[in-house]
Design a protein that fits this description.
- The protein has 436 residues and is of the alpha/beta class.
- The protein folds into 2 domains: 13-124, no CATH class; 129-435, TIM Barrel, CATH 3.20.20.70.
- The chain is built from 13 helices and 15 strands.
- The strands form 3 sheets. A 7-stranded mixed sheet has the order 9-10-11-12-13-14-15.
- The longest helix is centred in the C-terminal third of the chain and has 17 residues, at 354-370.
- The chain starts with 19 loop residues before the first helix and ends with a helix.
- Bound molecules: iron/sulfur cluster.
- The site of iron/sulfur cluster (SF4) has 10 residues, from loops.
Length: 436
Amino acid sequence: MTTKPAQVNNPSWRALEPSLSEVGRKYPNFPPAVLLKTDVQRRGVTYSPEALAQVDPARHMTTIRSNYYDSDRPIPISLTLNDGTSVYLEGFLADSHREPYLVDHDGQNAYLVDQGQALGQVTYWEKPAFYDKRTKSGKPMWQIVSARPQRHTIHPKQYCDFWKLKGQGCKFCAMDANYRKNRKDPRLSIPDIVETIAEALKEPGSSQSLFLTGGSLLTLPPNQKSPEPLSGALSEALPDPLEGELELYLGILKALGALFKSPKFPSQLIATAFNGKQLKRLYDETGLMSYTADLEVLNERLFDWICPGKSKLIGYRGWKERLYRAAEIFGPGNVNTGIVGGVELARPKGFATEGEALGATLAEAKELIENGVWVVSCVWRVLEGSVFFGQKTPSLDYYAALSLGLNKLRQEANFSVDLDNYRRCGNHPDTDLARA
Ligand code: SF4
């Protein structure tokens, strides 16, 4: 088996943007491993037959059930660079505008290769022992909890109700497409989750944190039960459409709390932006230590365009107000908001230039941090099945400048990034800079 060859739309793409080494020279203090990771996340990877021949499904992590990607093919889920930097790929194989990196193997080690040059040694993520076990209900545990070197991830709601409402899903998001392709249960059961986490925690040193996230759960009018897009508007929703999502997470977190001796346990929840009363219940009634509600893009006009459901339900300003309330409740450093770095340049309504996008994003991040909420970014992977599929992501230079800018803002404000850093998450180039 070989992985799919890259479809490069523009064969001269290299001449149109600065290379990895040029960006490295421009930002000499940017750690080379983090820069390489950023570019690999931006361009994707493909595997040589020799590299795939070294994948051992008994030892390596090749199965995943997540929001945007499900796989049980013998392909590594993600990679680790030899300085310990995680390259979270979740099966992302190729960007459609640029050639992906090649993972090759010389019989001894695996390497990331570009234009014939080996740039960094990598290892495939190891599979934890619980992946091969089943819950009492008969479910494979790898389908209940997914592992990273840093943490255990639970996706309790594997469908997002914004997709039930015509045109309301976020335009970069592939959750709806992934759900339809894999026909999985939209909800996990709490006993399955608790049993799997209890099993996972038996493996010493396996987890710095428990992480929960899933699609939004909206209490919608009774005719909107199926995942088919319906014509209803969010204004038809019942008065407090997020109570169901709140109850889901309260139930899971309370049940998980029984596994720990301390009242609080290392944990992060990414959820829809709850109101103050709901946030207080989350903090007071569970062991949850940190909270995230993703704005996705730091501009009101673009938020309205890219995240229409979130915009209609809560609005950009309302979302920010809820984050500020969360920061008061959970305390300094314990609340952040995620952005899909680069989506602010999506066509046709995004910023016209990378310079304009960077300035606007960092200015807005400054305001958020002044109100107790820090910003963490992911590299935008243009996912098949998303509305934005086929769009072109920004240059590596843009991502380096964005990471440096976000890191500088947090350092100036003396904000800890422990809740989402290389030890607890490993996905974000900007929080990798906290290692320096
Ligand atoms: S809220 Fe937006 S990004 Fe999140 S799962 Fe729903 S559609 Fe996707």
